[in-house]
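We were asked to recover a plausible sequence for a given structure. The inputs and outputs are reproduced exactly as logged, with field labels preserved.

PROBLEM: sequence recovery
POSITIONS: 486
GIVEN STRUCTURE:
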């Protein structure tokens, strides 16, 4: 049946309606379906472990974040702060006081290999690959990488690993070729393959299956896909965006606020009347349609013309021989169209005719059509939407762990101008980037180990150079930023 609440247009006028007089309640917050047992999805001869609700959590996450006015730029700031001045080679050391530090260095052989990826036939150069990995981490906290291994363990540089290619989480799912009957306890090691394709409505016949990269046997195949992730508490197989689930409803509300306001300005400002349809009338029309369908079934068996329901001289509704809720929805919609035509045209008094009709509720009670004037409270509605929007911004900012001094957004949407706050919060934030850097660089550092084992044993690793910003009071006047504008 049609929705129990809604609105209907008649020319330039808009009328809201509800069926029955029970108070209209707000819909309950959407909750993800959580069960203790996960059912694998059969695709060909493989069994896929679903990635979140309906196997589309990364896709839903990407859409909701992209549609938000605030989160994309917050994530972009996190990406820029982790990436810093870009990927560099370094060797870590500990001084006599126990202080850990990095010594950045250059190595011609390693840099020559990193710069050769495109020449080795890979899709992206090394820096583009790293950039994509950083973005993947901040959307899903996991990174899929395709390993291009040289046939026989050699490339044009006589190195086992020709390079790496980033593969989007939207396209990757872990799978296995074994699905023992009744098995309900799965671990990460059970899934030794990765299936790649369009999971949001794509053709399963186009999916491709790759071996999952095995660090214990790295050269078992010339092409494999690895999955590096930030382990999420309670989730054994995939990594999940730690902030997304907790504020999913806030993101949805924030994304919908402009639509609500625009819809209100377009429709509610012209809505003057609210129509209450008696539930007893709905039940009576349902019984009438069921009777007509039964009669039509007999007429059809006899080869006779079927009955139709008449609304006006030239307006008839085909009913058919089988009753469905869609018939009742169409009937109610047509009745509302007829009523609103009267209310918005020369037959406005026809509304009084509807109000005089009474219907029994089957318990001796009486119900009537009601047409009520809607109080127009434009200011209160818009202000309520804006207050909700501000609260949603606060929730999203706090969930990202970005203080307003470095996110450049305060509670009122004003750019924060506190230099000392920005400095100390930025330095604290930089100290918390060890895990993101480790996950993002895990695969390329393992490739470095395979290609240059001696250099790897000497402590050479790849990471990001993030220069510490000096406080302006600690910088000589001639070197301060205000005196060095380009």
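RECOVERED SEQUENCE:
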């Amino acid at each position: 049946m049609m929705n129990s609440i809604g609105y209907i247009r008649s020319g330039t006028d808009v009328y809201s309606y509800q069926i029955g007089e029970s108070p209209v309640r707000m819909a309950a917050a959407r909750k993800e379906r959580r069960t203790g047992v996960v059912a694998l999805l059969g695709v060909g001869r493989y069994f896929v472990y679903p990635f979140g609700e309906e196997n589309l959590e990364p896709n839903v996450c990407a859409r909701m974040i992209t549609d938000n006015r605030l989160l994309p730029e917050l994530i972009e700031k996190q990406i820029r702060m982790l990436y810093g001045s870009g990927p560099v080679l370094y060797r870590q050391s500990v001084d006599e006081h126990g202080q850990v530090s990095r010594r950045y260095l250059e190595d011609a052989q390693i840099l020559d290999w990193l710069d050769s990826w495109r020449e080795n036939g890979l899709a992206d150069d090394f820096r583009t690959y790293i950039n994509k990995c950083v973005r993947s981490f901040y959307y899903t906290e996991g990174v899929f990488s395709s390993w291009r291994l040289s046939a026989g363990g050699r490339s044009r540089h006589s190195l086992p690993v020709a390079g790496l290619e980033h593969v989007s989480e939207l396209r990757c799912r872990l799978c296995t070729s074994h699905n023992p009957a009744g098995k309900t306890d799965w671990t990460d090691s059970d899934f030794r393959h990765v299936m790649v394709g369009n999971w949001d409505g794509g053709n399963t016949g186009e999916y491709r299956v790759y071996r999952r990269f095995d660090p214990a046997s790295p050269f078992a195949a010339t092409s494999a896909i690895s999955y590096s992730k930030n382990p999420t508490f309670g989730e054994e197989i995939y990594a999940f965006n730690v902030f997304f689930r907790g504020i999913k409803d806030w993101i949805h509300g924030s994304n919908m606020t402009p639509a609500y306001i625009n819809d209100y300005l377009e429709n509610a400002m012209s809505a003057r009347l609210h129509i209450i349809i008696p539930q007893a009338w709905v039940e009576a029309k349902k019984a009438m349609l069921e009777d007509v369908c039964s009669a039509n079934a007999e007429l059809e068996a006899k080869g006779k013309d079927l009955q139709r329901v008449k609304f006006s001289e030239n307006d008839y509704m085909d009913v058919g021989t089988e009753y469905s809720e869609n018939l009742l929805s169409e009937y109610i919609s047509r009745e509302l169209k007829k009523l609103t035509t009267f209310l918005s045209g020369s037959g406005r008094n026809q509304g009084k005719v509807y109000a005089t009709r009474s219907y029994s509720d089957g318990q001796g009670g009486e119900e009537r059509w009601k047409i009520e004037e809607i109080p127009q409270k434009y200011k209160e509605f818009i202000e309520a939407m804006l207050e909700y929007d501000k609260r949603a911004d606060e929730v999203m900012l706090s969930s990202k762990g970005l203080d307003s001094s470095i996110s450049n957004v305060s509670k009122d949407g004003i750019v924060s101008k506190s230099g000392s706050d920005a400095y100390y919060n930025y330095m604290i934030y930089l100290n918390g980037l060890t895990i993101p850097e480790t996950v993002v660089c895990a695969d390329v550092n393992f490739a470095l180990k395979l290609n240059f084992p001696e250099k790897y044993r000497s402590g050479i690793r790849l990471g990001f150079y993030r220069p510490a910003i000096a406080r302006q009071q600690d910088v000589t006047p001639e070197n301060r930023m205000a005196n060095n504008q380009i």
